[in-house]
């Protein structure tokens, strides 16, 4: 890594140029930008694999885009990108390489970490996962009593839950409908209880997913699940081998828990938790959709990796999306970023992106530890349309905040949608197109008046418009398209972290709460007096204890 200290972002001439340009742009309206350039709607687009990306409804001109790309060049985004792909230890605070891209490398590719080509190991695990998934799907793998597995329960949290849980929903139409996959993450016992209450232990497989295998929520739930299984089966420890497998980097802890290391699917410390879904962490998804479909998804990831690695700046979609986010965050004071998929299957997609983006770029110090003097990662939020339209879109349309939004939609409904429901797809997509149109162009007071609206209601019925959106349209929701979408966002997040000069691959901010919870727990149970607690926490804890009769 380049050890020389770089000029602080807000002191670079490129940053100042963007500031000046922003002032010149003033209140320029998207209506004006579209009127001035009839080709805008097709010129400001990119095609990446199966994704058609329209960025014409952004508050940018050619000059804005040039200045943003100059900022990317000045901050050496592509230099850091190349270092990542080369396997350099760009996660400096944890001294680790960042190689989720190796998880989807072709079998004959070479990606070295400390002089070792890791690709054969990646494919060995993929092959082992495939063989296991096939055995579960075919019924060849039987439980302790000889019954075939009907339900898979993935126990994990954060990056060991959100990816497979999201993708299982996204790719539901590709799943074996005779097999059910459930996900347990919360240490609230209700989560496990609701997941297993109607299951037959003899037909249940638990996948314990944890990179570290020390995460308290996961180990607690896995221990309770083991008790539930053994009690339900009336069996001893020997039953665990047929009903528990582990996904982890920590074989010692897996063995300590009582899972046979032969039933462990490995990954490595150069895979960040929130970037791990295409590693062994995807086993539950692979069982659901089959190894072939899983590999199609990896191909989709790889396609966008290659695009990010090789496309010139003007055509590089992750670069563009990353820079647009910086433009709004620092020059329009946007605090949030909405991701609004027009597909019911993507209902957990934004929740997945929350960890990817907010755990990566929720940072406030530069790589060398000095405080940043600019905005970093946004609050990411959103739910599928059209539901959101009847809830919070009002604020996006007529509120006071700048909320850049991504609209994601598909031209065709999924293949197995019953023919009687196919017609609804046009209605869904009509809303999809209409919303970005309304957000961009709004409705002027004169247009409102022309409809005969009473003058006192004109301000209420006026839509200012000028709300920026990206539209991502794919022909169909397939495993490959899902891989392409996720890689697009992964690299977008990367670009932003590179410009901001933060470490996007550590997550020290989650530690303090974990440590304090360990200190508070014995106070709740009465095993510690809780001396030294602040007055607010002390009062809350004592109220809790009183209610619990302790
Ligand atoms: O606490 C945050 C975190 O470390 C995430 O980064 C990670 O995805 C999650 O916990 C789960 O960690 P593990 O896979 O080690 O159980």
From TrEMBL:
Cell compartments where the protein resides: Cytoplasm
PROSITE patterns found in the cross-reference section: P_GLUCOSE_ISOMERASE_1 (PS00765), P_GLUCOSE_ISOMERASE_2 (PS00174), P_GLUCOSE_ISOMERASE_3 (PS51463)
Gene Ontology terms for molecular function: isomerase activity
E.C. no: 5.3.1.9
Function summary: Catalyzes the reversible isomerization of glucose-6-phosphate to fructose-6-phosphate.
NCBIfam families noted in UniProt: PRK00179.1
Protein name (record): Glucose-6-phosphate isomerase
